[in-house]
Structure formats: structure tokens, C-alpha cells
Design a protein that fits this description.
Layout: H1 4-32, H2 56-80, E1 83-85, E2 88-90, E3 102-111, E4 118-121, E5 124-141, E6 146-159, E7 165-178, E8 183-186, E9 189-192, E10 195-210, E11 222-239, E12 242-252, E13 269-280
Antiparallel strand pairs: 1-2, 3-5, 3-13, 4-5, 5-6, 6-7, 7-10, 8-9, 10-11, 11-12, 12-13
């Protein structure tokens, strides 16, 4: 009985293979004769689209570097929009700005009698005949072309036809404007311009005193005064922290005490030619 079961199984496998082979041969013969076999195709179920995977690290990296690239591109584009003037290449949209710092200015000059006023006394008037001026100032560079300054000024006057004189002491506040930027871009370097013209406006207040104030007959006057002023000049750059200012200064003394008792001048004007050194720090 046990031997009969394997034999039966082998017989079934033989007949199944023979029947499959016979079926395949019949199908091949029909295809060769031009018949179209009826083949049933079962469609596959649709596959769901995979969920998109976001590479968070790569996305953050791209955004970050895209922002840096845009900044660098805008900066380069601004630097390349250059204006060529007299062989100098300056970038109008690129601010060449020196750090806000301070300076000390000290110097002196002489009073120009031919463009200055006069003093009066009882018998007439005495024209200013020379004199000197001293200036000592402390300033702030507010921007590349603007600076503010407070200064102590002293003027001493001599008068024609007399051995008498006068002296003034005043505290002055000035605002200066450079007509060009002292720094200029040439090629890839920022150079110091050798000559920088400037002008300034300000006002001072102080005390004046004429000689012979104790004279019982015709004492010299003394008192307070105000002095609006204007200045124009040029700075000669020696180094980045050191330069020389050459300037013409005009001011008006608002007072009725300029002279000697009996015929004082009112609101005289004073002209000085000044030379001073400026130390930036």
C-alpha cells in the first residue's frame, strides 16, 4: 500500500505535464495558422504615489547660500557702477566713510588791515593796522565731509597813527563742510586726496578790551561781544592723521564798545589769514 502511493503521485504528475504540453502545442499551432487566442488580462491595481521626501538639511543649505549669494551679488553690482572723473574711479553708491573720530587744530595768523574795519575815538578814527590771531580747537568728524568744532580764539589789534591797541578773547562754535570727499577710490585701493577745499560757518562770543582803560580823559572800552563768522580754505593732507589748513576768516563784532570813549565804532568787521595744523585721532 505504501509503495502504491508514490507510484500514483508520479502517474498524476506525468499526465499533468503531458496535458500541459499538449495544450501548449495546440495553442502554438493556432497562432501559426493566424488565429488570435483569447488571452484574458487582469489589470493590476493602481499604485499609490510615494509621499515626497524633503531633505531638510539640503533645503536649509540652499536657502542660506542663496541669500548670501544675493548679498554678494548686490554688493559687487554696486561697486562696479563706477563714475570716472578726471582719471579717478569712484563708486557713487558705495559710501566711503571714515570712522567718527576727533581732531585737534592749532595755529595762528595775521589781521589783514586792508580788508578790516577801524576803531573810533573822540578826535576821529583809527584803522586797524595789523595784529595777530591765535586759534586752538577741538573737533569731531561727523561724516566724511562734515565736522564740528569748538575753539578758543584770541585777536590782537594795532591801530594806525597811535601806539594803542586792543585784544579780544572768544569761544567759537563752527560747522565745517568739505567740498569733496577727502578719501577717493582708485582701482582697488582707497587713497587720501592731497587737497580738500572747505568752508565753515559759526558764531563766537567773548570779551574785548582796549588799551588805556584807566585813562580819565578817554578810556578804552571793554565789554562783551558776539561774532558771527565765515571761513573758507583748503586742507593739505600730509598723512591720514595729519594735515595743514590754510584759510581766510571773516567775522563781525556785534558791539558798540569797539574803540575809546567818545566815538566808539559799532559792529566792525575783522579779516584774518590763518594757518593751522590738524591732528586726527
Amino acid at each position: 500500500m505504501k509503495k502504491a502511493i508514490p507510484i500514483a503521485v508520479l502517474c498524476l504528475l506525468f499526465f499533468a505535464s503531458e496535458s500541459g504540453a499538449a495544450r501548449d502545442a495546440a495553442l502554438l499551432a493556432e497562432i501559426q495558422r493566424g488565429a488570435r487566442p483569447n488571452i484574458i488580462q487582469h489589470p493590476l491595481p493602481p499604485l499609490a504615489a510615494p509621499a515626497p521626501y524633503v531633505f531638510e538639511y539640503e533645503l536649509e543649505y540652499e536657502l542660506e547660500h542663496e541669500y548670501e549669494y544675493e548679498l554678494e551679488y548686490e554688493s559687487a553690482e554696486t561697486e562696479h557702477k563706477a563714475d570716472k572723473t578726471q582719471g579717478e574711479t569712484t563708486a557713487p553708491k558705495t559710501k566711503i566713510h571714515i570712522p567718527t573720530n576727533m581732531y585737534i587744530r592749532m595755529g595762528g595768523g595775521w589781521t589783514a588791515e586792508f580788508i578790516s574795519g577801524h576803531a573810533k575815538y573822540s578826535d576821529g578814527r583809527a584803522n586797524i593796522e595789523g595784529g595777530y590771531a591765535i586759534a586752538l580747537g577741538l573737533g569731531w568728524n561727523l561724516s566724511p565731509i562734515t565736522r564740528a568744532e569748538i575753539a578758543y580764539n584770541q585777536n590782537q589789534f594795532d591801530f594806525a597813527g597811535t601806539d594803542k591797541g586792543a585784544i579780544t578773547h572768544q569761544l567759537v562754535g563752527m560747522l565745517y563742510f568739505d567740498l569733496v570727499n577727502k578719501y577717493v577710490a582708485r582701482a582697488s585701493a582707497i587713497k587720501l586726496r592731497p587737497f580738500v577745499p572747505f568752508f565753515g560757518l559759526g558764531v563766537g562770543t567773548g570779551w574785548l578790551a582796549f588799551d588805556d582803560m584807566a585813562d580819565p580823559i578817554e578810556p578804552g572800552q571793554s565789554g562783551m561781544f558776539w561774532a558771527p563768522r565765515a571761513e573758507i580754505g583748503v586742507n593739505i593732507a600730509i598723512r591720514n592723521s595729519f594735515g595743514i589748513d590754510l584759510a581766510y576768516r571773516y567775522e563781525m563784532y556785534i558791539t558798540d564798545k569797539f574803540g575809546w570813549q567818545g566815538g566808539e565804532s559799532k559792529n566792525p568787521f575783522i579779516s584774518n589769514f590763518m594757518a593751522s595744523v590738524r591732528f586726527n585721532f
